[in-house]
Amino acid sequence: MSESPQLPTSNLVPSVIPPEWFIYPITVYSHHTDYAGVVWHGRYIQWLEEARIEFLQARGIDFSKLVAMGCNLPVIDLAIRYHQPLRMGMKAIVKTRLTALEGVRLPIEYEIRSTDDTVLFISGRVVLVAVDMEKGKILRRLPSDVQSALTIVN
Length: 154
Prior knowledge:
Blueprint: E1 22-27, H1 41-58, H2 63-69, E2 71-72, E3 75-82, E4 91-98, E5 105-114, E6 120-129, E7 131-132, E8 137-138, H3 144-150
Antiparallel strand pairs: 1-4, 2-7, 3-6, 4-5, 5-6, 7-8
């Protein structure tokens, strides 16, 4: 029987996250749309995930390394509000930011907007939770490298 991965831990301290948005540019191609040239609703979720992975990478959190350590960050809650449709050929930006950490939960807010930031296409929110992949259990603490990458020291 193998032992569970030994994940680094940190104290559960409320964190203040900077309010700046991480910007991830997108272009709508024909394979993102339905027969009418409107983006298929599920594609927005894929863009949110891409932006989230790039956001975490920019904060120094390499998702593949977390997985290799035996830690996963699955989505446990997802909400999207569709405001305006994106259409084939349009360019937009996915704005991503982490709100205050909630223990081992990472609430992330999104907006997909026009490149000039004047039109809101969707707003959304996901909540991730740190899970020990071998045990299938929620971790009591975030891995220390994740905690330190997301915590702002004032």
